[in-house]
């Protein structure tokens, strides 16, 4: 009986491990496929858009997400199989989580600043020659700066430890050593600053567009405003705006929980490994969701959505304007009208016109005879 119970416990534990292993494997596959597809979709954009600073930063974010998925996920999968962490591997895994977490925030903050400068201060944007070349230098500076920041734990500013349930490594964010405490608050403070700057740039950008809309209303007739807004809504600017706002939302939602956990753990020294695990899982979902934003918000997809919405609105307007549809209107809408019915209706119209004409002729003849 004891052997049977032990076998059942062993089988159940193996099933739990397989289920737990399936999650990182699935995340790894979806992340790789999504990022490769997004990079391929971005490479097919038109030359003038591909050479812009914004799309260079978008490609840099996609490549960063792909590298993070390909480097960090296999280590996590290996720990489920081996259940052992060599010291150097733990430090490397902690470095990857630190670097790709703050690198994504840095790139999305740069994208928000680029769009704000391009729309709110176009003359400054032109004078500084913000182009593809400058965007590449910005990406290079982001990578170098973040590498230096995330290498500080290797120089003694912090220590990488195993985090429950022993499937990932991160800095010791419950340490009482002053140098370790300083680095935890430094990393969390820089991440918080990038989050606040991203939110501020996006809010200022939306406010600028709202002011431009109000000014256009006062300076131009209503019909020309609608036409101009329709033209802008089908252009490249609206695609950049949608891509920036949705990507910013995804990055901020996925990255903020981990930053909050660093502050909470280091300030109050709490031990809630379940919340820590949920925070790192949110951060791991970020490079999986980002590429699908690029794929779904391509210009062709945006055009289709806009055309569908316009058709729906146009259909509602026509239904209100034409409460009593005629035969011509129904034929234009490709309604299924029997030929006999249409012939009968047209015949009635013809007879009515003929009878009214005959009545008018007889009335004129009576007047002539009276005269």
Question: Explain this structure to me?
Answer:
The chain is globular, with a radius of gyration of 32 Å. With 371 residues, the protein is mainly α. Helix 1 (2-43) runs antiparallel to helix 3. Strand 1 and strand 2 (168-171) form a beta hairpin. The longest helix is centred in the N-terminal third of the chain and has 42 residues, at 2-43. It has helices at 2-43, 47-50, 53-82, 87-120, 122-127, 132-150, 178-219, 222-233, 236-268, 273-296, 299-321, 327-332, 339-370, and strands spanning 160-163, 168-171. It is built from 13 helices and two strands. It has a two-stranded antiparallel sheet with strand order 1-2. The model is unreliable at 4-12, 322-358 and 363-371 (pLDDT under 50).
Tell me roughly what share of residues is in helical segments. over 70%
Radius of gyration: 32 Å
Please outline the major beta sheet. Answer: 2 strands, antiparallel
What proportion of the residues form beta strands (DSSP E)? under 5%
Number of strands: 2
How are the strands of the biggest sheet laid out side by side? 1-2
Mean pLDDT: 79
Distance between the termini: 127 Å
Please provide the ordered H/E string of secondary-structure elements. HHHHHHEEHHHHHHH
Oligomeric form of this entry? single chain
What is the structural class? Answer: mainly alpha
Number of H/I helices: 13
Shape: globular
Q: Show unreliable segments.
A: 4-12, 322-358, 363-371
């Amino acid at each position: 009986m004891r052997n049977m119970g032990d076998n059942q416990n062993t089988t159940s534990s193996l099933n739990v491990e397989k289920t737990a292993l399936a999650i990182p494997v699935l995340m790894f596959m979806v992340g790789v496929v999504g990022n490769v597809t997004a990079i391929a979709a971005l490479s097919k954009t038109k030359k003038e858009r591909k050479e812009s600073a914004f799309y260079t930063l978008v490609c840099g974010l996609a490549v960063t997400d792909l590298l993070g998925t390909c480097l960090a996920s296999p280590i996590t999968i290996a720990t489920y199989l081996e259940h052992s962490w060599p010291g150097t591997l733990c430090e490397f895994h902690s470095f990857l989580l630190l670097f790709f977490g703050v690198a994504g925030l840095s790139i999305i903050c740069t994208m928000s600043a680029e769009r704000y400068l391009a729309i709110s201060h176009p003359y400054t944007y032109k004078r500084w020659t913000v182009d593809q070349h400058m965007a590449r230098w910005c990406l290079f500076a982001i990578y170098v700066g973040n590498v230096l920041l995330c290498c500080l734990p290797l120089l003694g500013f912090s220590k990488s430890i195993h985090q429950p349930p022993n499937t990932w490594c991160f800095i010791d964010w419950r340490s009482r050593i002053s140098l370790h405490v300083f680095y935890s608050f430094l990393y969390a403070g820089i991440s918080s600053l990038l989050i606040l700057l991203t939110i501020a740039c996006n809010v200022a950008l939306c406010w600028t567009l709202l002011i431009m809309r109000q000014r256009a209303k006062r300076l131009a007739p209503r019909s020309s405003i609608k036409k101009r807004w329709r033209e802008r809504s089908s252009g490249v600017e609206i695609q950049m705006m949608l891509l920036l706002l949705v990507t910013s939302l995804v990055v901020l939602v996925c990255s903020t929980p981990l930053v909050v956990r660093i502050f909470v753990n280091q300030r109050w020294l709490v031990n809630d490994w379940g919340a820590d695990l949920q925070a790192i899982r949110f951060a791991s979902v970020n490079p999986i969701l980002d590429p699908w934003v690029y794929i779904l918000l391509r210009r062709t997809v945006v055009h289709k959505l806009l055309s569908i919405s316009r058709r729906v609105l146009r259909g509602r307007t026509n239904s209100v304007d034409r409460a009593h549809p005629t035969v011509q209107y129904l034929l234009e809408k490709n309604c299924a009208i029997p030929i006999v019915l249409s012939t009968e209706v047209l015949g009635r119209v013809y007879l009515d016109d003929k009878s009214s004409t005959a009545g008018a002729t007889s009335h004129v003849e009576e007047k002539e005879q009276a005269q």
